[in-house]
Amino acid sequence: MPKLIYASNMSLDGYTEDEHGAFDWAPPDDDVFTFITELMRSAGTYLYGRRMYETLAVWETDPSLAAQSDLTADYAGAWQAADKIVYSSTLTSPTTANTRLERHFDPATVHGLKATADKDLLVGGPNLAAQALTAGLVDELALFVWPIILGGRNPALPTDTRADLELIEEHRFGSGVVHLRYHVR
């Protein structure tokens, strides 16, 4: 059965956003960007909350991003090729192709998606990922730990859920970023 993978950038102190709610503290270098693109390409479906979806939708709605380089074009192509499911009670309609809107996260529906998928699924965004972890749906975590202490907000991992993990891969980048891949036991 395909896996549900939670992928996230996080600071060394465990946050996904700085104190102002920004993500710009983690601009990937070419090696990190290529690695993340390959992870994105490995999945056939992305599960997002509204905010993460709106942040990433620019990879389809703003063609100038893809035009910046071969690397950004490759990422945009990978992002656009996947199906997207956005969980939001406030979004009126998606702005990208291959995207459907769900009003509420339903663990049984996601379990069914995993059972019928041809490729892995990625969940992005710490709030949605926390729901999936709590429901026992996440098979792996793919964490990109950046060499920065943010003292920010929005922790990458839930603070009220236990998950026993097994480290199955690590990769160190020249920029100081470390990719840690864990299997959820």
Structure, explained:
- The structure is a single chain.
- The chain has 185 residues and is an alpha/beta fold.
- It has a single domain, classed as 3-Layer(aba) Sandwich (Dihydrofolate Reductase, subunit A), CATH 3.40.430.
- The chain is built from seven helices and ten strands.
- Helix 1 packs parallel to helix 5.
- 29% of the residues are buried.
Please specify the SSE layout and strand pairing.
Elements: E1 4-11, E2 15-17, H1 30-41, E3 43-49, H2 50-56, H3 58-61, H4 63-66, H5 70-81, E4 83-87, E5 99-102, H6 107-116, E6 120-124, H7 126-134, E7 140-146, E8 153-155, E9 165-172, E10 178-184
GO biological process, one term: riboflavin biosynthetic process
Pfam family, one: RibD_C
Protein name: Deaminase
